[in-house]
Amino acid sequence: MALVLHAGTGNKNAFKALITAEYSGVNVELVKNFEMGVSNKTPEFLKMNPLGKVPVLETPDGPVFESNAIARYVARLKADNPLYGCSLIEYAHIEQWIDFATTEIDQGIARWFYPRTGYMPYLPPAEEAAIAALKRSLGALNTHLANNTYLVGHSITLADIIMTCNLYLGFVRVMTKSFTSEFPHVERYFWTMVNQPNVHKVVGEVKQAESVFPVQSQKKPAQPKEPAKPKEAKKEAKKEAPKEAAKPKAEAVAEDEEEAPKPKAKNPLDLLPPSKMILDEWKRLYSNTKTNFREVAIGGFWEMYDPEGYSLWFCDYKYNDENTVSFVTLNKVSGFLQRMDLARKYAFGKMLVIGSEPPYKVKGLWLFRGKEIPQFVLDECYDMELYEWTKVDITDEAQKERVNAMIEDQEPFEGQALLDAKCFK
Fold first, then answer.
1. Pick among 3.40.50.2300, 2.40.160.210, 1.20.210.10, 1.20.1050.10: CATH of 1-264
2. Residue 199 and residue 238: Cα distance in Å, rounded?
3. What would the CATH number be for the domain defined by 271-424?
4. Which of 105, 158, 279, 314 is the most interior residue, by most CB within 10 Å?
5. Segment 259-287, tens digit of pLDDT
6. CA atoms 220, 225, 227, 233: torsion sign
7. Which residues are in the GST N-terminal domain (predicted)?
8. Helix (H, G, I), strand (E, B) or coil at 51
9. DSSP letter, residue 274
10. For residue 412, how many other CB atoms are within 10 A of its CB?
11. pLDDT (tens digit, 9 = 90+) per residue, 190-217?
């Protein structure tokens, strides 16, 4: 019995098994005439997967569902398959990146894309949080790929196949060039992978989204169509025409195996009592002040500052002795600011790279909504633990002056030249 994969032709989760089969020399046939919402609701299909999700692989020993499990099964059909690495630690790293691709990349893209399709409620705050979380994950992936062509070792592994397929939906639906340009190593990696002969044979030509998939009206999952009554045939045909026209765009959505995730709960910071300080007003004042900065911007800051609604924090990098290369140090700070994007609505920050020669010192000043550093920032941004955090005592004039100097990019700062100053706003 041949291996038969039950899924539609554009399903990125089906791509995982088909690409793995190409690399492994295994024959996997994609079932013909599969129609999502119809084929996966039949009694025969539900015997293979009671949830009705795709893809499902039909094997001589029984069905296998869940796309990663199917890809693993296909890879293991070839003895000593290099897709699984050459050592126990490579095997562990491959599994590590498969998990990362699933829980971080795939889910991040899903939380951004699916609400726009209308298959779950679209909530702008939830989308904002989803994009911030995805940027954090892509930032971590970008850092790894800065020094690695592939995820593990020096050749393509199963981790690369699964990562590429999970990135595929993002690149073709919501991740435009302006978005992915922040992650140049991820871009290089994705286009390298989709142009590999074994990958290209399955996915075909890939074109990056020119705009973010527009928000659609909420709709129910596709249901099998019932034949229209003769009297109403003309009316029904007219009614169904727009759906048919829209089908190609929504096909990848309907055929994806994952359930649409529930939107995240409201951020606790949005539930705090109103503050007299309006963060956006301060950011505008900071950005628009070109002369008399001390008097206008910094004077305005202290007039606005509300110690009941906001808190100020100094941060000092714990491992400054490692900062021996200027561009690496600057990239480290840029990466931190990129991963702090999830807090943009609730924070303002200045990061200074200090010194005219190595080792360079990294110090920062942060304004956060609330009297403490927000818990979601501590939980989600792993850079936080790389810094010592000290709450500013605004009754201490010396600390207050240090705040002024950091906001102003004062040079010299604490007796040393500034290599660079970066602002998070």
1. 1.20.1050.10
2. 40
3. 3.30.70.1010
4. 158
5. 444 555 678 999 999 999 999 999 999 99
6. positive
7. 1-82
8. coil
9. P
10. 11
11. 999 999 999 999 999 999 999 998 888 6
